[in-house]
Amino acid sequence: MKKTQLFTVWLLPLIVIGGIFNPLLGYLVVAMMAFFLSLSLLKGRYWCWNLCPRGAFLDIVLSRFTLNKFVPGIFTKQWFRWLIFTLFMGFFVFRILHAGGNLWALGAVFVSMCIVTTIIAIIIGVVTKHRGWCVICPMGTLQEKIYQIGKSKKDIFSNQ
Ligand code: SF4
Description:
Elements: H1 3-8, H2 11-16, H3 18-21, H4 27-43, H5 46-50, H6 53-60, H7 78-98, H8 103-127, H9 132-136, H10 138-158
The site of iron/sulfur cluster (SF4) has 9 residues, from helix 6, helix 9 and helix 10.
């Protein structure tokens, strides 16, 4: 467990519980996404292992309840990870469009996506390893890709 996680872990209940009463808390997710997607360009998945509130929850809390079984091999396949990403983003965009520009409804979309993915992360974390979800988490996949793109661009410029 990282010291930073002791601070960031509290953002998870704030969003998934507080967000039920005040959907505007969903905008914290937007702020975090903007931050970690920018960070990933240089630092890859630094966010995941040091700052992510859900990752912190999985490390601090769920690690005590996991059955610690093998993560299914399919989770590590690129095609499967991108399939999960596509399904997640498709559903996400559908919900955003459905919110019709209403600020509260939009906030609620982020809160509910956070609740749903947290429930999935808990189930996977209990039956496999506590970080099992992080292997297929769409945001983890995206950070990894952004880092690879950033690195290849850097390599191209340094070879010129
Ligand atoms: S993989 Fe997803 S849930 Fe896991 S730490 Fe990274 S962003 Fe958070």
